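A.,

Following up on our hallway conversation. Structure tokens first:
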């Protein structure tokens, strides 16, 4: 944040978590596991936005980038959530993630 301020950036830095919520860099430092599998969350949450904008309650998202492609379902304007287990510094952790399919090297 300090470096960005030096460059003239006056906004807030927010990161997307694996379940599609926004968090601050400080909060992410305290629970970095919530950022695992967050790459698929951006496309899914864009799908939530589009479902509300268009009035379509249910839809499939297709997010193709340079290194992966993700597909998620939106039901009733919400992404499907599941849980994954990760090894954290304090021991095993169960974190919510947006359910979907990711194909690496798909872009």
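Then the amino acids I'd put at each of the 107 positions:
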């Amino acid at each position: 944040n300090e470096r960005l301020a030096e460059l003239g950036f006056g906004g807030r830095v927010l990161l997307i978590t694996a379940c599609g919520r926004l968090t601050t860099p400080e909060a992410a430092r305290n629970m970095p596991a919530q950022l695992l599998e967050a790459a698929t969350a951006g496309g899914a949450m864009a799908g939530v936005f589009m479902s509300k904008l268009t009035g379509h309650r249910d839809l499939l998202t297709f997010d193709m980038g340079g290194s992966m492609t993700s597909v998620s379902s939106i039901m009733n304007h919400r992404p499907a959530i599941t849980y994954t287990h990760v090894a954290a510094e304090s021991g095993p952790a169960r974190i919510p993630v947006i359910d979907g399919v990711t194909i690496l090297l798909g872009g």
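The first strand starts at residue 15 and ends at 16. Curious whether your intuition agrees with the design.

B.
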